[in-house]
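During the no-cost extension, the postdoctoral fellow (Dr. R.K.) reprocessed legacy sequence entries with the updated structure-token encoder. One reprocessed record is reproduced below for audit purposes.
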Amino acid sequence: MQHASGDFKAELIQTVKDIVAPGKGILAADESTGTIGKRFDGINVENTHENRQFYRELLFTTPDLEKHISGVIMFDETVKDTTVDGSQKFCDVLRAKGIHCGIKVDTGLQVIGGTNGETATQGLDGLGKRCAEYYALGCRFAKWRAVLKIDPATGCPTDTAIAETAHSLARYGSICQQNGLAPIIEPEILQDGDHSIEVCAQVSEKVFAAVMQQLFAQHLLIEGLMLKPNMVTPG
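Re-encoded structure tokens follow.
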């Protein structure tokens, strides 16, 4: 079977193996400019490019970071940024440590009309071009935020929201693999609510089944992606 990975098959598989190496994990440093501003507010730091740059450099140059971190997810600004003195690109700093660079590629959530506030993830338009650009910059994996909520009283998540999430996750994953990026496939099922752990498990199983069906239908290379499930806990 021809997979979406094309000529990147071996590289994608190796990237995933590197990232899930025992004892290591992913550092999420992909806060948007607005989100990191909220964090800075808590410590009375002004949200300027220079401060964001200094903060990222502090993280990425941590001694022995590579002993514990196998991949770093970044925001568009950070991927294209350099150390404060301008001598090194952040991607080069991480790659020199043997750490894979990742990139958040979605462009946010949009409410699905006719639903109880359920959302669809935006960002498929122009994604191939952006993925190719990020690959050239040194990125080798990607993240896409897809959100579902549980609310038995209103029937959430609806079949409409589940189908949208499964399809868009698979489309994003396929486009990433075509351009050399190993996608993290994460249907984020929110834990908010007063539902039981049994309900959470039932919803999760239904969502995972729909997502996997789409991954196979769209011919993704399963060995060349990372599945990130939610934790099944009481609401």
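The domain at 6-227 is CATH 3.20.20.70 (TIM Barrel). The helical segments are 9-19, 33-41, 49-60, 76-79, 90-96, 127-137, 159-178, 197-217. The remaining legacy entries will be reprocessed before the final report is submitted.
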